[in-house]
From TrEMBL:
Name this polypeptide is given: phosphoenolpyruvate--protein phosphotransferase
SMART domains in the cross-refs: GAF (SM00065)
Domain of life: Bacteria
Chief site of localization: cytoplasm
Lineage of the species this protein comes from: Bacteria, Pseudomonadati, Pseudomonadota, Alphaproteobacteria, Rhodospirillales
Cofactor(s) demanded: Mg(2+)
Domain GAF: 33-179
Enzyme class, spelled out: transferase
Organism name: Azospirillum rugosum
Annotated EC: 2.7.3.9
A Pfam family matched in the record: PEP-utilizers
Swiss-Prot/TrEMBL catalytic activity: L-histidyl-[protein] + phosphoenolpyruvate = N(pros)-phospho-L-histidyl-[protein] + pyruvate
Keywords from the UniProt entry: Cytoplasm, Kinase, Magnesium, Metal-binding, Phosphotransferase system, Sugar transport, Transferase, Transport
Family statement drawn from the similarity comment of this UniProt entry: Belongs to the PEP-utilizing enzyme family.
Any one Gene Ontology molecular-function term assigned to this protein's record: phosphoenolpyruvate-protein phosphotransferase activity
Amino acid sequence: MTDTVGEASAGFDGAASRRLLARLRDVMAGSGSGQERLDKIVSLIAAEMGADVCSAYVMRAGEVLELFSTFGLNQTAVHNTRLRVGEGIVGDIAGHARPIALDNAPSHPSFAYRPETGEDPFLSLAGVPILRGGKVRGVLVIQHKDRRRYTEEEVETLQTIAMVVAELVAQGELVNPQEVSSTGDPALLPARLSGTSLAGGLSMGLAVIHRPQLTIRQMVAEDAESELVRLNAAIATMHSAIDDLLAAAALAGLGEPKDILETYRMFAEDRGWLSRIREAIRMGLTAEAAVQQVQNDTRARMSHLTDPYIRERLLDLEDLTNRLLQHLAGRKSEADGGTLPDDIVLVARSMGPAELLDYDQRRLRAVVLEDGSPSSHVCIVARALNIPVVQANDALNRIEPLDPVIVDGDHGQVFVRPAEDIQMAFAESVALRTRKEQIYAEIRGLPSVTRDGVPISIQLNCGLLIDLPHLKASGAEGIGLYRTEIPFMVRSSYPDVKAQTDLYARILDEAGDKPVVFRTLDVGGDKMLPYIASGEEENPALGWRAIRIGLDHPSLLRQQLRSLLRAAAGRPLSVMFPMIAEVAEFDAAKRLLDLELKRLEQQGLEPPSRLRVGTMIEVPSLLWQLPALLARVDFLSVGSNDLTQYIFASDRGNPRTATRYDPLAPAMLCLLRRLVEACNDAGVPLSICGEMAGRPLDAMALLGIGFRSLSMSPPSVGPVKTMLRSLDVAALRQYMAGLYQKGDHSLRDKLRSFAKDHGVLI
Ligand code: PEP
Ligand code: MG
């Protein structure tokens, strides 16, 4: 890099932040119209933070952000410059409800130049969303002429100030509240929101808007000590309320969510989280503002991470924050309200598992979230309760309280105020779904054999104790992939050998005589654990992750292997290493396992009755070392999620590239066929545990290639088993022989036609 980037001014510290907040309090308490107070606020921020520009954009009807006040930009732009949500950097901040800090804003892909503002000379920009009640109400921005990096403290301060500005916006003086609450749609017309399926199922009910965020009336505290006392009291009542919830979950027989709630309680006791809140109080905030501030800070620090595990942790923390705020306010959750309808469709920006369980489970029909991922805890709990969940952008704006809503969790659709024809289609779909579920239940006990008599092993992918009951219920043969990193990610410190041993032993206990393949820690890149230090990486997917961390920190991997060996004690154990790129890496990992085996013997502890060691096939280089690899391993499992991204050089976490290439492309199928042949020749068992194994059409292709073992998430078992029992695999194999050399982008359509013509139920 040839440009130099100045560091942020060292002068802006905790004391400066406190001074700025105190002055803001005076402005808010003072006289003047909303506009006048906003003008004072932006000038104050610019002066105190040494910024050349400070601007406040306020949300108007139709999702438009209007420049309402500025210090430093042309005053003629005020009330004239307007940006759509998603347009420009300001629109991006509003669209994602997250802060942005840039040392060279004009080079950012979202930069939208507005000549009327005269903003061309300003290179650096830091902006935060103005949030209230879970909605974005505007954006607050500071800019500097020179290139400089903003400190975390500056961004945090802006977030705190944005909370104050949110109160000003909410007072309704700047924009008529009616204007922003109107959706822009004729209020009572039916609407369809197309979203993403997070948990399957189909349900109808009346909308209940879950708005956990409480209004924080006072931001700056008079007396830090009394705020700390209030915080401690609220934490104590929150803990006992979570304990009550745990007891209630146990009473309700919710074995699985209980496990999650326990993790959740651990979060509530997280010292790091609590000490940051206490520190913020000592900086001069009220207890409520401090809780919110730490939440904003966590959100900001983690917002760029797209990994679903991290995002789900973030949602748990969000839930906890809201809970703590409720306790600080001495208020009961809105779920206690006796006025809720009998059929509840919850609509929320985000929500944690405990919040969901606050609602009467007998009345809960579905959940619509603006922010959530399929592996988030709230979705896992929803699945355990058999409730569909859909992620739909803009749901809070488009759905009004008590609107009738149909949630189609199978197709990621939400129908708001559905017309009669949709309601009729809904009734038909419910009947069809019930019939399908009956079929899945019936085939659970039937052999997993293709129509032409080829036995297929169906295994499960798991990562939490909550998944284990599915093993018995689904009729799967075992666990083909236990992702050990998931339990690690919900902890704030690295679990010691005893904690790990207990956990793995419990998994083996629950699995009984069904085999479990434990994959060693697959973290790194954007799936970093808070207690393993790593620098930021330009290409996290190609970075320091999985086995690379294990080999660089052998004590970490050895502790995990030691725990696995101890947990197995006299039982069979299968260990699988992730992201192995070369045989030498496998050898190095295996050496650590051998050392631990020796140690086990020396200590006179019982070894596993049988130890199988394998590796994932995720990194293409390994495919060119197959003879050497096959001579060493007891089994292999294809991680097609990663293998696809590396084969096509196409980031699986980037929405622009994630679906650009299809795993059913000729290149991918050719490569998998070679692998199957090599494993068959060497007599090494091969399985596949990427997402494609759980999609009926993809799984069909895999069987046609020659795979005989598929590992998938529990809900996929019924559909995949239905598919394979209707498949003549010999006919498919013959058909596919003519496909491998085709030049198509994808063979999906051809394979779908085969399924249709041959009565394969996909
Ligand atoms: C894979 O890469 O296909 C896989 C199963 O591993 P993960 O999705 O956990 O990276
Ligand atoms: Mg992988």
